[in-house]
Amino acid sequence: MKELYETITQALVTDGYVVIENALDTDLAKELLNFAINKTNYKQAGISIDSKLDQNKRKDKIHWLYEDNSIQSKFLEFSKSLQTYLNKELYLGLSYYESHFALYDNGDFYEKHLDAFKNSKNRVVTTVFYLNDDWKKEDGGELIIYDKYDKYLTKVTPKLNTLVVFMSEEFPHEVLKSNKKRYSIAGWFRVDKKEL
Ligand code: OGA
Ligand code: NI
DSSP letters along 107-176, please? Predict the structure, then answer.
């Protein structure tokens, strides 16, 4: 695991983003997929208070992770260790991590956006962890990452156990239309105080 944290840290310093295949334990990824599939209470995700506007930009449904004794806690443990590592090595001052399962149904997408605005002092580092076994090219749903000048950087297939990490304020990104159910965990390390 130490190696993984080091890889992420170095990549954030040199490139600001990283895509890692087979990032965690495969069994953990599979168990998270089953957990995500069995969840029934996904809620329509929103971007702002104007829900009409939201749903033109973003179609996914979400379910927030929380600490319990289930498999989601294992993922949260990973995020905690990464947070500690990033704070120690890069002095990012990350205060907490929030994350949600996301379900994109057939036809769903997420238009190009930034996860945080410049100097907003909230979301600093984004993670996306993919949970889809046997994802084919025709299934679509790729994550496209751009640089701060909006130049295309890379395309990520949302396949099981692929982890993407990037600086939230610097990389516009979008999710192309998915042609089947697409599961992931999107998360953000933040620097503000957690609201209870
Ligand atoms: C997000 C996001 C990307 C993905 O939730 O902000 O950009 O591939 N997700 O699920
Ligand atoms: Ni995003």
Answer: T--EEEE-SS-TT-SSEEEEEEEE-BSS--GGGB--EEEE-TT--EEEEE--BTT-EEEEETTT--EEEP
